[in-house]
């Protein structure tokens, strides 16, 4: 149980560092954005950046039925997912 507490504490530290001021940046609406996406049979990951600064990020696991999608459907799925962040 002590190991589990240590893992939870470490994950909380990572979460705090990723969501606090030095990491996330407010976007400049007049500047362009770059979206980086990663797709696997396990899940979807997206990062929105502007001028090499992190604006937002999101990830999700694929539901069981979506794991069987053909590649072109998964690519459309990540386009829809990334447009929502």
From TrEMBL:
Which Pfam families does the record match to this protein?
RT_RNaseH_2
Please name the InterPro entries in this protein's record: DNA/RNA_pol_sf, RT_RNaseH_2
Q: Where is the Reverse transcriptase/retrotransposon-derived protein RNase H-like domain?
A: 9-82
Report the protein name in the record. Answer: Reverse transcriptase/retrotransposon-derived protein RNase H-like domain-containing protein
Annotated source species = Solanum verrucosum
């Amino acid at each position: 149980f002590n190991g589990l507490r240590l893992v939870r504490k470490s994950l909380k530290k990572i979460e705090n560092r990723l969501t606090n001021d030095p990491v996330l940046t407010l976007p400049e609406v007049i500047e362009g954005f770059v979206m980086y996406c990663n797709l696997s049979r396990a899940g979807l990951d997206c990062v929105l950046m502007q001028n090499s600064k992190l604006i937002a990020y999101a990830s999700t696991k694929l539901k069981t039925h979506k794991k069987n999608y053909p590649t072109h459907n998964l690519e459309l799925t990540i386009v829809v997912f990334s447009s929502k962040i």
